[in-house]
Amino acid sequence: MAERITMTIQKNLLEDLEECIKESNKSRSEIIREALIDYIKKYEWLHQIGSRAGEITLIYPLNVHKKVLDIENRYRNIILTSVSYMVNNEFLRVIVLKGPKEDIIKLTENLKSINDIKYAKLSTVGFENKK
């Protein structure tokens, strides 16, 4: 049974959603439903395995670069390397990491909480701890 919800999103996100609707010939509800399903599956999968390796991709303007570096510095124990490239006056940053899922989740959430972060995506792979 379907439930009706109301949500508030940023104008630019709504504009991007409308563009997806035009290109995909899907309804707004279909696109949001698919995104929620993907998010929930990723969330469930992320919480099943204890140790992970992966990367976080960020896009952000220059004014938040110091905040990104400050947060990264607090998680040096799980960051293997990171690299930034300037593209169209914005940073594209890739952070490669390995460690306990809890730390990876906290790092990702801290980075996503920075105002003006335009894109933040975590991709991970799980692995079993060998004793």
Automatic annotation (TrEMBL):
Residues 54-125 form the Transcription factor NikR nickel binding C-terminal domain. Residues 3-43 form the Ribbon-helix-helix protein CopG domain. One of its GO terms (molecular function) is DNA binding. CDD domains: RHH_NikR_HicB-like. GO terms for biological process: regulation of DNA-templated transcription. Keywords: DNA-binding, Transcription, Transcription regulation. It comes from the Archaea. InterPro entries: Acetolactate_synth/TF_NikR_C, ACT-like_dom_sf, Arc_rbn_hlx_hlx, CopG, CopG/NikR_regulator, Ribbon_hlx_hlx, TF_NikR_Ni-bd_C. Belongs to the transcriptional regulatory CopG/NikR family. This is Transcriptional regulator NikR, CopG family. It comes from Methanothermococcus okinawensis (strain DSM 14208 / JCM 11175 / IH1).
